[in-house]
Design a protein that fits this description.
With about 260 residues, the protein is of the alpha+beta class. Helices cover about 45% and strands about 10% of the residues. The protein contains 10 helices and 5 strands; from the N terminus they run E-E-E-E-H-E-H-H-H-H-H-H-H-H-H. Strands 1, 2, 3, 4 and 5 form a 5-stranded mixed sheet that branches. Strand 4, helix 1 and strand 5 form a beta-alpha-beta unit. The longest helix is centred in the middle third of the chain and has 18 residues. The radius of gyration is 20 Å and the shape is globular. The N terminus is likely disordered.
Length: about 260
């Protein structure tokens, strides 16, 4: 459940340099809002391209990459939520209408940028599956992420058939962590994500960040190399003030207060 006392600041664009937006409202396709009060540290990214159902077009991807680059340098951001401004849609996947107008060279450059974006946001491979029904194969990492999530046999079945999955089916397969019944406002998934963000928020930010690095990098290598990566991340966390605060809080039987140092 959401806390009643959460304070919301207005959405604001973090405009990508040299890009113009074609969103219905005439504003940026990617907008940002930082939460305040008890939810300070949570930042929301709003995907707002209603006419294309948030499809991954050139402007959309450029603005999102620019936004992520700026937020990556902001130490006040502890948890990042992606939210759709288009009712009933999160992201329609690749913008195939725009892709059709690109040359082969332009497609290659765009897909490379898209692959980097998917790595940045640790996106689910399911986003690229429907491309197989258009004579394409997943180009943003779907052929690599999906087998790691589901195993080779099931990944091949889904990619070869281009089958669309419901939220319940995706949850049953382990592609998503949570599936919730929709509410009248159509934002039940957002509320669940917000509640999860509120669970992450009070944790030590450096430990969370290093844990993410250890998991992501460890999945790319063998177990022995992964253990070495974990050891390096652990060593970086040892001298932090937050680790000492966590130990003191445990000893004194009180909630810790982490500062990200």
């Amino acid at each position: 459940m959401l806390r009643v006392l959460c304070l919301l600041r207005p959405w604001r664009p973090l405009r990508a340099r040299g890009c113009a937006s074609d969103s219905a409202a005439g504003g940026s396709e990617i907008q940002v809002r930082t939460l305040a009060g008890p939810d300070q540290g949570i930042t929301e990214i709003l995907m707002n391209r209603p006419r294309a159902r948030n499809a991954l077009g050139n402007v959309f991807v450029s603005e999102l990459l620019e936004t992520l680059a700026q937020l990556r340098e902001d130490r006040q951001v502890r948890v990042l939520l992606f939210r759709s401004g288009v009712k009933g849609v999160f992201c329609a996947g690749a913008d195939l209408k725009e892709r059709e107008q690109m040359s082969e060279a332009e497609v290659g450059v765009f897909v490379q940028r898209l692959r980097g974006l998917m790595n940045d946001i640790a996106s689910s491979a399911i986003m690229g599956l429907i491309e197989t029904t258009r004579g394409l194969l997943p180009g943003a990492g779907g052929t690599q992420r999906l087998p790691r999530c589901l195993g080779v046999a099931l990944a091949k079945e889904l990619i070869f058939t281009g089958r669309r999955l419901s939220g319940t089916e995706a949850h049953a397969l382990g592609l998503v962590n949570h599936a919730v019944a929709q509410n009248e406002e159509g934002d039940a998934a957002y509320h669940r994500a917000r509640a999860l963000a509120q669970e992450i928020l009070p944790q030590a930010p450096i430990a969370v960040r290093l844990g993410k690095v250890a998991i992501d990098r460890g999945m790319e290598v063998d177990i022995a190399s992964g253990m070495a990566i974990e050891g390096m991340c652990y060593a970086q966390n040892i001298p932090t003030r937050d680790r000492l605060e966590g130990m003191a809080a445990f000893r004194e039987k009180r909630p810790p207060t982490f500062v990200g140092e």
